[in-house]
Amino acid sequence: MRANISSVDNLKEFRVGLIKARDALKSSFSEAESDIQRFRNWLVQDQRKHWETIYRKRHEQCQTARRELQRKKNEKTMLGNRRSFVDEEKAYQKAKFQLEEAEQKLKAIKRWSSILEKEIFNYKGAVQGLASITEESLPKACGNLESMIISLEKYADYSSMEGVDFMRDGEIEQDQEFDKGSDDKDKQEMGQ
Question: Is the pLDDT of residue 112 over 80?
Answer without folding.
Answer: yes
